[in-house]
Structures are given as structure tokens and as C-alpha cells.
Write a sequence for this structure.
């Protein structure tokens, strides 16, 4: 009878079985950091082995990237992974079933949080399969009859701890509460898994629209949710180390410059010749901006060199 076992490729390109690879990593860790705790020593050993392997090949493998993301997950908190409050799609618990189905259909969500009166009074979530089951039985329940519990967590909770808690409780959604008890954001188990494997898109996700549209006049139309790092890659470094700790998106940067929420059509002066024009807002959130002065900034940079 032939051997049907499948030999797995070890994460760092070695041919050893995974178990022997971890033994080698552990021996390496104890020799290099004998006074470290077992967990810390093994983590540092894996990080160094990944760096050495990447330096040799020049390109990190998929396995290396997964291991790196797993190690980085311990540094991530719920607040880093959550969907912000302004982007939460939810329904009032007193809505009718048609309104619920319309929201689920429009946003292609299988799970929807429910609230009573305001989002700060979140009472649970509704799962699409419960709705479909009711229609199959020709029942007309109230939304409150379909409520499932959700977790309530704080932004400072480690992402890895929440992932474990979700697995143990079999709850795939958590509402993030601030220090005053208000809803600050929402996290699903998919958000946490994406921290390890990258963005997950299914057949219902719309193709991503460009974050940046370059206009013939040299201006840029930009989705204000663009990360500040992505914007800086186009225009150069804008933030100080202190500002970088509190500003994550282009919208946050424009709010920082203005010191308030600008009105639609209002312009905000940036560093050098950069000018930000607010094109679209949603309540207290900037959604789209036009950036001017890029050509002049590039000319100035060329003259400086």
C-alpha cells in the first residue's frame, strides 16, 4: 500500500516537518535568549528566523507573511480592527421585517446589529439565516424575536483575546464601547481573521472603487478614508511622530488641520501649497476631498533638489 501522507512545506522554505521546525526554533531561542521566558524567547526566535529567510530570498513567502501577521496580532487592539461608528449598518428593533430585509439586501450583510432608539442602546444582532427560516415557515415575527446576543468589549482589549473569546462563545460580532458606555465601533470575527490573512472578499462584495481619481487639471479626488500612510506615499511625509499616533486617515488629517468639521465646499490649507477642498460629508464625517497644489508642490520639491 502506498504512503498517502502529504508532506507539508515548512513556513520558512525548509523541508522539515512542521513539528521538527518548531523544535529547531525552540533550540535556537534557548541558545540565543536563555533568560527570556519560554513564550518571549520562541517569539523572538521566529521573528529572527523570518527576517533571515526574507533577507536570503529577498521576497517574503506567504507562510512568512502569515507568521509575521500572527506575531503582530499580539500588538493589535480591538480599536485598531473595528469598523468605526459612522460606518456601522444597524436597524432599530422596532422596525418591521421589510425594513430589515431591505437593509440586509442593500448592504449585503448577513449579520445586522439592532438597537433601541439610538445605536448606544444596542440590544443584539439579527442573523440572515433566522430571517430566511421565518420566511420559509411563512412566519412574520418581530425583529426582537430574532435577536441574538453580541459581545460588548473595550477598544483596548487585545485583538487576539477577542478572537479567542469569539471562538469559545461562538459569537461572531462584538460592539465596542467607549469609556462613557456609548458605541464606538463594531468588530466581527472576519475583521480579526483579516488581520492575519489579509482582506477577505466574497462573491457579494463589489469590486473596490479607486480611492484616488486623478483629474486633468492636476487635482486629486480622494476617498477621505484613505490611510494617511497611503496619502503620504503620494505627496511626501506630512505628520510628526506625535501626530501619527492619533491620525490614521486623510479625513482625520483634514479635521486636524481645520480644528473642526469643515462644511461642504470649504477649503483647508495644508503644508506648502497643498489645499484640501471638502466635497462630501456625512454628519460629522468627511467622506471625499479634492486635493489641489500637487503640481506646484512637485515643482517646489524639484527646485529644492
Amino acid at each position: 500500500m502506498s504512503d498517502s501522507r502529504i508532506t507539508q512545506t515548512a513556513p520558512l522554505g525548509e523541508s522539515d516537518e512542521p513539528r521538527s521546525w518548531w523544535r529547531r526554533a525552540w533550540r535556537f531561542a534557548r541558545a540565543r535568549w536563555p533568560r527570556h521566558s519560554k513564550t518571549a524567547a520562541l517569539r523572538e526566535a521566529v521573528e529572527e528566523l523570518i527576517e533571515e529567510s526574507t533577507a536570503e530570498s529577498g521576497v517574503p513567502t506567504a507562510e512568512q507573511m502569515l507568521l509575521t501577521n500572527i506575531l503582530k496580532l499580539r500588538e493589535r487592539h480591538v480599536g485598531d480592527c473595528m469598523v468605526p461608528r459612522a460606518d456601522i449598518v444597524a436597524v432599530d428593533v422596532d422596525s418591521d421585517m421589510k425594513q430589515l430585509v431591505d437593509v440586509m439586501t442593500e448592504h449585503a450583510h448577513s449579520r445586522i446589529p439592532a438597537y433601541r432608539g439610538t445605536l448606544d442602546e444596542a440590544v443584539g444582532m439579527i442573523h440572515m439565516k433566522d430571517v430566511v427560516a421565518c420566511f420559509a415557515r411563512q412566519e412574520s415575527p418581530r425583529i426582537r424575536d430574532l435577536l441574538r446576543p453580541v459581545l460588548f468589549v473595550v477598544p483596548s482589549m487585545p485583538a487576539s483575546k477577542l478572537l479567542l473569546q469569539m471562538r469559545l462563545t461562538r459569537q461572531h460580532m462584538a460592539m465596542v464601547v467607549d469609556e462613557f458606555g456609548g458605541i464606538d465601533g463594531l468588530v466581527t470575527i472576519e475583521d480579526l481573521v483579516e488581520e492575519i490573512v489579509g482582506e477577505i472578499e466574497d462573491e457579494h462584495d463589489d469590486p473596490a472603487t479607486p480611492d484616488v481619481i486623478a483629474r486633468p487639471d492636476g487635482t486629486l479626488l480622494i476617498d477621505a478614508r484613505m490611510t494617511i500612510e497611503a496619502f503620504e506615499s503620494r505627496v511626501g511625509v506630512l505628520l510628526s511622530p506625535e501626530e501619527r499616533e492619533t491620525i490614521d486617515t486623510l479625513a482625520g488629517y483634514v479635521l486636524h488641520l481645520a480644528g473642526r468639521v469643515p462644511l461642504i465646499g470649504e477649503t483647508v490649507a495644508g503644508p506648502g501649497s497643498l489645499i484640501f477642498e471638502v466635497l462630501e460629508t456625512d454628519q460629522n464625517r468627511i467622506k471625499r476631498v479634492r486635493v489641489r497644489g500637487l503640481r506646484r508642490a512637485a515643482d517646489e520639491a524639484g527646485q529644492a533638489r
